[in-house]
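Hi R.,

Quick one: here's the Cardiolipin synthase sequence you asked about.
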Amino acid sequence: MSAFYTYLFLTDFEQDWFLAVLRFVLLIVVTIHVLRHVRDTRSAIGWIGFTWIMPITGFILYTMFGVNRVVRRAQKLVSTQPWHNHSIDNMTKYYIKGHFYPLAKVVEGFTQRPLLIGNKVDTFYNGDQAYPAMLAAINSAQVCVFLSTYILKSDETGREFADALIAAQQRGATVRVLVDGIGSGYFYCPIAKYLKKNGVLIDRFMHSFWPWKMPFINLRTHKKILIVDGKVGFIGGLNIANENKLSTNPKHPVSDTHFQIKGAIVHELTEAFLQDWFFITTEDLNKKKFFPKTTVEGNMICRIITAGPDSDMEKIKYTMMQAISLARNSIRIMTPYFLPDDRFLSLLCLAAVRGVNVEIIIPQKSNQRLVDWARNINNILPLQYGCNIWLAKPPFNHSKLMVIDRMWSFVGSSNVDMRSLRLNFEVNMEIYHKEFAEDLDDFICTHRHTLLTLDDLHHRSVFKKFRDSTTRLLLPYL
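And here's the predicted structure, written out as tokens:
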């Protein structure tokens, strides 16, 4: 403030010199910081170029949106907390052989999580199947309930979950709820108010009205995690809202796929939630009672993979890319939004060229019009190189599924777009199990309704082509 008052009392000539010196100092500061800390070359060039054109505005915007404070905070917190628990019996760890060995080895290397055997994974379609199982688990809780979700609406479904969480808290269970600061309402989150009023500890991820914390608005937790007593977990793409119960004929129905897990893999999912809770609240819940002795529930081999703009940067993306590079026969991807970067698209194209059957299933019309426009440009390259893109009929399907060679499956919260693969905090699970992969692959194939062709894209009007090309510039933020 003193500098501002000093500026007011300067002569016009002195004010011009002051602004000139200020601009020069700011652009030098931004340039040096970008060169040292921004990894992406295009982003670095963009920030430097914008700041040299508009030094003061560029400095302010870079300070708010260009500096990744999340990485620094995550590294500081993780360095003080040994996250990988030691309660998992070595007998549950598994080592893959065969042509997926490089994938298993690479993923273990950058996640530091082992593959675990002895698990059981059940598939639920839509809230009609998943919600009753999730509520039954919460209603049986005696030790803990951990819930993380992007959307927890204050509708009939959301209130039913909230009441179950409150009842679990009143029974003496440790209950913690984490919702996204935007997905569940930025200015007003009635479900959070309701839970807090009834004694449940809930926090809103990266949420703040303070201007200096505005950079975090663009960083969202998209994870869908539910863990009960450390013995049963749920993971997938399902939010908690009336729109996911198709049997009730909601106005805007959303179809989705969710998974119940049992076995040692629940420990890795618990760890993923507790890391996020510690990251946001600094409350240490890495307690032995939340990691009970594991039991063999089945014969499925699984691993949890987390990703976000922190110490887990792009790990889900790297997993998918490594799996694509190893595919021999088929790649099937089902995603509500298909907007990956050029490296990801190139790997899909290379797979198609070497004879792999690459099929991508996306909604005919999603719930995000801008995404539908932008994807039209992205779809041209894979179509040119022999990938098949199918448009699924309504209702809008929000499932995030990937199957390689009908042997390896990848499920969870991550879409195949730049936001999910780089900006969002996501959680996925890889599954090495032939029968499970075949069932999931068959489910994906049932949504091959309309085949998209290059002619469809080339015959768009000039206006639509211009609209789509312009919208594509917003890719990192859609």
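The chain has three domains: 2-67, 75-107+118-305, 315-477.

Cheers,
M.
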